Amino acid sequence: MPVLPVHVVTGFLGAGKTTLLNRLIGAGGFANTAVIINEFGDVGIDHLLVEAAEGGEPMIELSDGCLCCTVRSDLVDTLFQIAARVDAGSTLDRVVIETTGLADPAPVLQAVMATPGLNERFRVASLVTVVCAATGLTSLREHDEARSQVALADRIVLTKTDMTPPSEELLAAIAALNPMVTPVDSRADGFALVLDDAAVSAADLPEDEPHGHHHHHHDVNRHDATIEAFTLTHDRPIPASTVEMFIDLLRSSMPRQLLRMKGIVRTVEDPERPLVVHGVQSVFHPPVRLDGWGGRTPQTRLVVITKNGNRAHVEGLFAAFTGQIAPDRPDAQALTNNPLAIPGM
Fold this sequence. Notes:
The protein is an alpha/beta fold. It folds into 2 domains: 182 residues, P-loop containing nucleotide triphosphate hydrolases (Rossmann fold), CATH 3.40.50.300; 136 residues, Hypothetical Protein Yjia, Chain: A,domain 2. The chain contains 10 helices and 15 strands. The strands form 2 sheets. It has an 8-stranded mixed β-sheet. Helix 5 crosses helix 6 and helix 8 runs antiparallel to helix 9. The longest helix is centred in the C-terminal third of the chain and has 14 residues.
């Protein structure tokens, strides 16, 4: 039974999500793709969408092989319908979800990760955030949803740069929220947004950290007042049970402060096959194994995005669970097997 990759395209109102999606579909390469639109705006993917919205079939097949629909009820129901179509013989390679402009993308990711029956059929491959060069700075300053869209992104696309170039203030605001991702200009020569179906989040991070250390923090020296992204790395294999305990304690102690964690873990049980870890807030997708490291250095690499100054807390937990002994720092046993310990602390 194939597990379909899901790519989420988000961005604040008027950022140009549908225009970008139209452009990508028009460029080809979207055959065997299910495209889900969870708002119906003035510009559709195709004129057939209008017919579908007026009472036709909830899903229609476009001329290039795309399966398209507009969500008027529940995204989960729509994904189950797609899974049923695959079971009935439809050939699909991926799912692309365009969110409404006012949506925090976290619940969309959580629906894929946590819904029983869905998390066995779908997995989140990437979150693409569209930012308008003209209005993006105002959106980031005034709306929590816009900040969340940028902070959680795996890729950031700047639009409407033909109208106005992105300001230094906008680029700085994006870098403060998400220092791990360099924005790309949708109007630049040769621009092509390739949706990598094989993406496993942090597995394709550049290996620019020095090796030979048990635990190295990648300090980007750029962080928003409330949102911060950083990496946790570890060279030695980690027991799978330790990884599970670390994640359980992390999400129980900061369910709202942990925005996203994604990456790969080198485990004691199967060090040659990395374990993929991916969570949004307190919801985590069931871990899966890759076939190998793909020529990269076998090493645990986790990208963590938190808010409200919780970096030291996360790093302390990771150090404790990976055996980083230090004065005034509890070890894993003290955190998990101490009858005097406060739950979640």
